[in-house]
């Protein structure tokens, strides 16, 4: 219910398991994003991430929700079962980012740590960095508006997730308190072709790599489970 239509066009380069580490460093690590297919097998992790399994294992434990706003840092703590039932629903297009709560990135690793031990991260690293996981579950139409940080990978476990990316020197036009869904409906159609972002839809098992300081926004087309590996 509440799925968002998918745009079939993909302007992000793709690579498969034949991509070597040296080629990754040479072609993508410091210059442009890439979608990697077949580089990990997370079927065991996926089996633990069904709605029933997660509610049974973590229902009473607290999760920290963030607002879907580029510059807001408001956090709300609720038991996971309260998020997994009434709050996990399709995005209201008229709702502001500051009023939209989103489970992504702030987790109690003492309690959720055993789950993450089953995750197989992408095999590539950036020299001088160390990985940190960020786990998320979100309803259709939800997402994070444009922002940037260090490099990282993001893998879809369940659902489909649409990405929009701009290089560091090309700041996107967006309102920081507008959700990605509202931006897609109101701003995206007005952009000339030359001003459109790189974009693509990720499906389960696909991994997106984004370089340092690249602007990006996300939109969950379905109720989705996803995990990022930030390289800090």
Task: Reconstruct the topology from this structure.
Blueprint: E1 14-15, H1 21-27, E2 34-37, H2 43-47, H3 51-58, E3 62-67, E4 75-79, H4 80-87, E5 101-104, H5 109-116, E6 131-138, E7 152-158, E8 161-166, H6 180-186, E9 198-202, E10 206-210, E11 215-220, E12 224-231
Parallel strand pairs: 1-2
Antiparallel strand pairs: 2-10, 3-4, 3-5, 5-6, 6-12, 7-10, 7-12, 8-9, 8-11
Quick structural gist:
The protein has 232 residues and is an alpha+beta fold. The chain has a single domain, classed as Cupin (Jelly Rolls), CATH 2.60.120.650.
Would you give an account of this structure?
A hairpin with a 7-residue loop joins strand 3 and strand 4. The strands form 2 sheets. A 9-stranded mixed β-sheet has the order 1-2-10-7-12-6-5-3-4, covered by helices on one side. The chain has one domain: Cupin (Jelly Rolls). It is of the alpha+beta class and 232 residues long. The chain contains 6 helices and 12 strands. The chain is globular and about 45 Å long. The protein is 19% helix and 28% strand. It has helices spanning 21-27, 43-47, 51-58, 80-87, 109-116, 180-186; strands at residues 14-15, 34-37, 62-67, 75-79, 101-104, 131-138, 152-158, 161-166, 198-202, 206-210, 215-220, 224-231. The N and C termini lie far apart (37 Å). GO terms for molecular function: cis-regulatory region sequence-specific DNA binding. This is JMJD8 protein. Residues 98-232 form the JmjC domain.
Poorly predicted tracts of residues: none
User: How many individual domains?
Assistant: 1
CATH class: Mainly Beta
Shape assignment = globular
- What's the total number of strands? 12
Structural class: alpha+beta
In the CATH hierarchy, the third-tier topology is known as: Jelly Rolls
Number of helices: 6
Q: What portion of the residues fall into strands of 2 or more residues?
A: 25-35%
Let me know the CATH homologous superfamily: Cupin
Computed CA radius of gyration, to the nearest angstrom: 17 Å
Strand arrangement within the widest β-sheet reads 1-2-10-7-12-6-5-3-4
Order of helices and strands: EHEHHEEHEHEEEHEEEE
GO molecular function, one term: cis-regulatory region sequence-specific DNA binding
InterPro entries: Cupin_8, JmjC_dom, JMJD6_ArgDemeth/LysHydrox
Protein name: JMJD8 protein
Pfam families: Cupin_8
């Amino acid at each position: 219910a509440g799925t968002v239509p998918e745009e079939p066009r993909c302007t992000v380069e793709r690579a498969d398991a034949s991509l070597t580490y040296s080629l990754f460093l040479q072609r993508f690590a410091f210059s442009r994003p890439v979608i990697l297919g077949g580089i990990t097998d997370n079927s065991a992790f996926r089996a633990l991430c069904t709605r029933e399994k997660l509610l049974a294992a973590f229902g009473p434990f607290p999760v920290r929700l963030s607002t879907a706003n580029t510059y807001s840092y408001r956090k709300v703590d609720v038991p996971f079962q309260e998020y997994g039932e009434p709050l996990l629903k399709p995005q209201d297009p008229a709702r502001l980012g500051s009023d939209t709560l989103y489970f992504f990135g702030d987790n109690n690793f003492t309690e959720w740590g055993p789950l993450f031990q089953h995750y197989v991260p992408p095999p590539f690293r950036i020299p001088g960095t160390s990985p940190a996981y960020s786990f998320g579950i979100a309803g259709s139409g939800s997402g994070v508006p444009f922002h940037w940080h260090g490099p990282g990978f993001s893998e879809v476990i369940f659902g489909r997730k649409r990405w929009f990316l701009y290089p560091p020197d090309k700041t996107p036009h967006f309102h920081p308190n507008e959700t990605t869904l509202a931006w897609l409906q109101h701003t995206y159609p007005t952009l000339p072709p030359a001003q459109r972002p790189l974009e693509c839809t990720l499906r389960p098992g696909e991994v997106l790599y984004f370089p340092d300081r690249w602007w990006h926004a996300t939109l969950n087309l379905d109720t989705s489970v996803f995990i990022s590996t930030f390289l800090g």
